Amino acid sequence: MSKKNKTSYKIMEVALKLFSEQGYYSTTTKQIAKEAKVNELTVFRHFKTKENLFQETTQNYVREVKVDEIVNKIKDNDFDDNIRILSRKFLDLYFYNIKLYKVQMKLADKERKFIRLKLSREIQEVLINYFEELAEKGEISGDPKMMAATFVNSILGAFTVYVLTNDTFTDISIEKMVDEHAKQFSSFYQTKKN
């Protein structure tokens, strides 16, 4: 990695941390520069504006999500196992991106939609393709688009409640909730085996 790339990455790391702690609007480029141990001018040389820094930071973290790789690794397994594995993997993915998620929660609608749509679309597109393949084989019944939306929204919903309540909403662990979701999802959509 070149020195310029290392500096850009460091600035983005710090920006994500500060945006998640203080919110986008309360974080200044001066604070980002200070914590990244660079001159504020360096921040502007790399990103031109605070908004560009924000967009590149979120795009960088969303890009790191390799949803298609997750699905491709499990394709040959049993549907029940796949749904359970996918549920856990997506939950892990949300925890991995928890700073980005916290940033999103503090943003105005326009910026929040940018992040949410980017990550949700990627996940849903991969799931739609996966569910379409299974439907063509007769292994599942249901509309693949609806299945993908339901699947993602259930995991995201459990994660959101977890984040908003600091895990105090229920005494049931988020992992158990996600496992139960996977069990119900697969029993609802899987065609009956003879």
UniProtKB/TrEMBL annotation:
Name the UniProt record assigns to this protein: Transcriptional regulator, TetR family
Q: Where is the HTH tetR-type domain?
A: 5-65
Q: Name one GO molecular function term.
A: DNA binding
Q: Which InterPro entries match?
A: Homeodomain-like_sf, HTH-type_Tx_Regulator, HTH_TetR, Tet_transcr_reg_TetR-rel_C_sf
List, alphabetically, the Gene3D superfamilies matched.
Tetracycline Repressor, domain 2
Q: Which residues bind DNA?
A: 28-47
| Alphabetical keyword list | DNA-binding
